[in-house]
Write a structure and sequence with these properties.
heterodimer, A: alpha+beta, 7-stranded mixed sheet, 12 helices, B: alpha+beta, 2 domains, two-stranded antiparallel sheet, 13 strands, elongated
Amino acid sequence: MDILPILSTLRRHKLTSWLLILEIALTCAIVCNAVFLIGQRLQRMDMPSGVAEHELLQIQVADVMPPSNPYTRLAEDLAVLRQVPGVLSVASSNQVPFGSSSSNGNIMLDPTQRERTLNAGTYFGENLAQTLGTRLVSGRDLQPDDFVDVDTAMKALGTGDSKGLPHVTLITRTLAERLWPGQNPLGRIIYLAPEVGLRVVGVLDSLARANAYDAAKAQYTMVVPLRMGANKDQSYLIRTRPEDRASVMAAALAALKKADPQRVVTTQRSFDEVRRKFFQDDRAMAGMLVGVIAALLIVTALGIVGLASFWVAQRRRTIGVRRALGATRRNILNYFQTENFLLATIGIALGMVLAYGINLFLMLHYELPRLPAVYFPVGAIVLWLIGQVAVLGPALRAAAVPPVVATRSV
Amino acid sequence: MFGYYFDLAWRSLRCNPVLTALMVLAIGLGIGASMTMITVLHVMSGDPLPGRSAQLFYPQLDPRGMEDYGQGEDPPGQMAWIDAMNLLHARKGVHQAAMSGGQVTVRPVQGGKRAFYSDARFTTADFFAMFDVPFAQGGGWSAEDDDKQARVIVIAKTLADKLYGERQAVGKILRLGQNDFRIVGVIKPWSPIPHFYDLTSGGYQDGEQVFMPLSTALALHQGIGGSLECWGYMSFDHLDRKTAPCSWLQFWVQLDTPAQQQAYREFLVSYSQQQKMLGRFVRPPNTRLHNLMGWLDYNKVVPGSVQLQTLLALGFLLVCLVNTVALLLVKFLRRGGEMGVRRAMGASMRSIFAQLLAEATLVGLCGGVVGVLLALFGLWVVRQQPAQYAGLAHLDAPMLYATFALALCTTVLAAMFPAWRACRLPPARALKIQ
């Protein structure tokens, strides 16, 4: 196909051609960035929690009257839950991965250090690793005699008596790798305060923190052997088989209510719901972006259809003359297709530059990473396809113009 | 004259229904998408207390230690108990109040209703006068009640209706947790958007149902919620909020005149110096005094994702605009012959221009109608989303007019260039081509 005649025709429709190119460029730029944003959101929604997600239930209860001894109360509640048929394991925890409330501590590697090394999510609770289903990759799990009551720990912190403080901790592999790259973390000490040193006794494969907003720091978590006692911020975690979740939840709530009819259940959900809630904004945003991309591509396609129809109508005579001089229908069809391809290519080239610019702006204002180069060819292919599909109708109409049109004066 | 132009425009648009529909649809889509997002942004960044917000200020102090110290760092977003009480008792503003959010267990006595949790605000006496809270019955409590930890509460109308129905709630005794409180006031539905006075639990939550003196809440160990930022050593759970090196209170002050505001700024600095002399503060004075809208801005109350969506919608509008310009251009240029005839018959360039703009206005109006319908649909979709602000997304009257105005303006603007090009076509040439 000869391109030169097409170019010379386009030169006579400079304005409309440039408007179409501009529209394709803008669409290309917006679509590249929007698809990139969708990718970002989807990637975030895939963030691993490190726990057996489809087997976990979370219950929070609040007492109208605070129990006289929160520790025995907690132990009783856990015992009650363990009796529920279908329950595989129970634990209490101050937070759950992707949960709504979080507990975090500042970690230091040296007690005299003035600035923290990093901030990590701190899980407190018994039997946690086992119930959550997070795998221990080295070392040992926390033992019952590692645990300390939180009141005792607070008192010990006040008096400076290190006996009442916890001494060991479990950390995640990511945290270990961040703190001591390439070294064995077992036996090393982490400080939460100058007098609170915790020896690493075990390394967990993966465990996300509650406020996992930053994917890079989502796995900075540790489990500290502190007994928190029953209170409204503690969660009871139940591990069960996926198919038993509904019945176990109902039975567990009934059992807890039976133990104390006065209490109010404030949270009852499966871990699937926890994840869904945490990432709901991401899902909504991704959905909206898909909608906008679709609408944008439709508008652009309609624009192409409109302009191409106009050109076809305007060049009816020329087409007739060409047909009369021996051009086949296919030649005419190819002509309009090539014309559209040319315009789209210029538009896409401009669009790439624009997409890069928009990405730079977004990086500056919304903490987004750089647009990977792979999005450029994807955007180009999408727009080429849209252009070809949109121009097909008008081009077929052009190809249908009979040669006899050439002989008519108007 | 214009009637004739509109008649001509109508005929011309009907001549080419497909192209017309394309233009209307393109404008409608662009307007609909951008107005949906602009409405959400408008609702979210509105003034929560119109008329009063300019006089409300949020002071910040920096009582932290020297660890992690950095020059020019922002002070904590909340206040420690001691500072809040000192500022409260200094009474340097017209009104001032310290506050924190929390939850209480409401235990209805009659009817055997089950106990339930309600969001509560623990605050001091000036809260109601400062924020112009409208009362249905009774009123707030006094500063004296704050001092003697009186067991009084103010409740919201919805809670009063739920508990007492038609009967007078003021004077009734309500049991919260283990203690009895006397209801002294019932407020009318009041829920400023954003929830400006406490942003720690999100900017768009509902208003509280129970208001209780802060001192009483602390004395009776009510469940105080919200965020707690501590400095110095690690702290576990059960700490004494009055002495802990932690900031957890919001503090607001009403300052009516610029002189008062300046005086208050100076007071904050001198207070910091005095506290440093006493050894409680160690950092050099580091204070801020944001006004209400400034405070919302500083806290980036409008989520980045909403801003991003608005940008996206505007980009979309731009594409639709370019599309309209192109379509109008081909439409107008195509009618060169008709224009040539009109020019040859004596129509001025100006009247041709006016005629073409009238045609564009008609397209804009139709696009506006489609746009409003699409915006209504878009807002309905937003309302189905689970985000905290979703329920607020409604098209109010000003936004409805704005939608039409935007549709008209953009279309007429888009038509300017094509109309100018079309009316400059030399009539002789146009006629010759015919």
